[in-house]
Amino acid sequence: MAGVEENSSAVLQGIARHVNCLKEDNRNTRKRALEDIKKDTQGRNPAFEASELQLVFSELLKPLLKGFSDPVEKCRELSIGIVQWFLENVPCPEESLSYVFPILVQRLGQQEIVESSEEIRFKLVELTLVDPYPEVKKESCKCASEIAKTVPQYFYSTSEHLIKPLLLSITHQHSKIRALVVETLGDVIRYGHNKSVDQVTSHFAQRLFDQVPMVRKAVTQVVGMWLLDLPDRYSFHHLLVPLLLTSITDDQPEICELADSLWHDVGIKYEQENEDDFKDKQDFVAPPPSHYPPHVERPNIGCRVLVNRHASKILPGLMRDICDWVVETRIKSAKLLYTLLINLEEYTTQHIEILISGMSKASLDEEKRVVEEVNKSAELVGYFVRPDMWCKVMLKTLRMNQSYGNLFIMAGILRGSLASELLPYLEDISTLLTSPEVCHTAQVEVLTQLLACVEALVKVMQSETAVISQKLFDLIITVMALTNDGTVRDKATKLIQDITVAQGLGCKDEFFRQHTHPLLQSFGDSYIAWTNHSPERHIFNTLLIEAGPVVGELLEEIVAIFKSCLKPEKDPEVRLKSFALLSQLMMNAADTLNSQQRFEEFAVVIVKDVVLPNCVWQAGRTAAAVRTAAVSCLWALLQSSVLTSDKLEPVAEELITQMITTMDDDNKSTRLISCRVLTRTFDTMGNALDQDRLHNLYPELLKRLDDSSDEIRMMVTRTFLAYFDCFQNKYDVGLYRAHLEALYKGLLVHLDDPEEKIQEGVLEVLKKAGQLHPNLLLQEVENVKHKHRDPKFCNRLIQHMQAVLAAGSN
Prior knowledge:
One of its GO terms (biological process) is inner dynein arm assembly. Residues 124-281 form the Dynein axonemal assembly factor 5 TPR repeats domain. Residues 290-482 form the Dynein axonemal assembly factor 5 HEAT-repeat domain. By secondary structure, this protein is mainly α. The chain has a domain at 736-809. Helices cover 71% and strands 0% of the residues.
């Protein structure tokens, strides 16, 4: 601290003579003294430290304040300038205000003008504008406005000096001061030098984000006033128009109404001032456009022309701001774009490329409000730009970049388009949308926007969608096939219904009847090379699931594809998915594959050429999964009751042989389903099976009673019941006694099973088997009864067989 005081004292000693000279009568001496003080303080190198500067100022303040009243204007100006510099740079300017303000009041606040020089009075006002005390700022702003209005002829040349001090306060923490500063700037620039508009508009743009409506309203009023009354306003239309149009979409209705009213007046005045340019349009007034956005009041011709003439300057910056990193900036910019397009109308065509590019980027925004506003703007493009113009740009853009942003904008433009104008371009649009590079994707966002495009086309074109009906069908099925998103699938389903209604078709089935066959044909022979990731395979699956009864009308094509996809040498994943699809269809065969009562003609082919070859054992888990899928498919086929005994007979022998093999599979599910298939086969074939063949089967069935799974063992008991139903009524028990003995002995072993439910199942089997030769069974039971842990099941069987014999003798 001591060092600071020493430095300050040294400086003061150096300028002490200059201070003494301020008391001299000679004006030149006083002037030179002030210039030397300025040089030794403001111009000092190195500059003072803050604490040194404060001490120097405290010593110089009073002599300098006396200079405010110097009879020489130049001396007063120098004194004020030095004090102003000190106030701007010292760390504690408030310590000096008690000395400064009385002098200012003396010079400015009297009825009689004490300060005769307008320039000096102006400089004093400039000094008070940056004062930290809010009330001083308010009064200074009011003073500046009054000066500007009262003496504009003198004010013009010096107005620029007020801009910087005012802008320093435009972000003040008090909203009233911010609003007052905006209003003051309005007056200062209106009555002063207009070129300051360039310096101020960016600050005004920031104030449109102000949280206080009063500030935003002040900006709106000032900008509107400038557009109406600023002498050089034509040079700044491109800066001011966006500000006023932004206020039209303000959150406060009062500000919106004010901005809309001012904008209307601006248009009227612009039209009046350019009467010669508008003469032709006024003499030959065109009728309002028939295709115009609903619930929108059309701007007057002056507004429309004004925006058109400056759109090329406004749009590039706006397209940058709409992708700004600040969310609020993006929202404001998106709203402004909509208002701008409302005024631009058909002139939008000139800017279609920059609009599509900018809107496509903005549509990717994470902020929902930005996307909503961009969507509204895209619709306006559809209203105001003819399809022959936007199609060229939009389709070219989409070919280069298949982003969902581009599709989003296309959907919006389509919604705003006129049906009669859009009709000639439907083929080009639908061809691009259905091209593999656009629609063969798993991105949910892209698929969603593809459906949005379809929805827009249906909404606009209605029955005229018939000309591209096949492409719309292909696109919807493709989207359904390539998405796992439930919302997207529901949307696609609804669109099918909407198109059905729009085209006057009776029902969804009729829509599928028209388009399923062409879509199948479009695959050509590509299905030969399908893999698990082929989009066409997914489309095929979805098509058959959705087509319902139409599937039964196209069995030739469908079965051919299944045969190709289910060849044993095919990719296992493809076979698994194909078997799953085939099983799903067979579970509801009456409404799908067999809707025309023709599936039985193809069912045998499916069993022989599709299912059974895939049941052949191969090593590996994947092969095991395929075998499970194959027998599951066979089970679904038999459950559908499509195959009668006559149809099944040619393949019965091969089927039973293969099922006997798969009954011994390592996979539990495969073994279980094989037992079910064999049971249903026995039920279907009945007595048609050869007796010798039946005798060859029971050893394999008995082996399954030793399976590790109780579920399979129970299933085998039901298989045995069906098995014994296949024996003919005139069964030669004498000839086949050895087989019966082996059967009875094998079954009796499991009558003593640890599991009671198995015992119950085997008991029922033995009751049925005993009907072939009751005496032989009784004999076998008596032979093993003593070996059983609990003879109760043997006793129950003996009682049953005795009852059978008694009934037979009667």
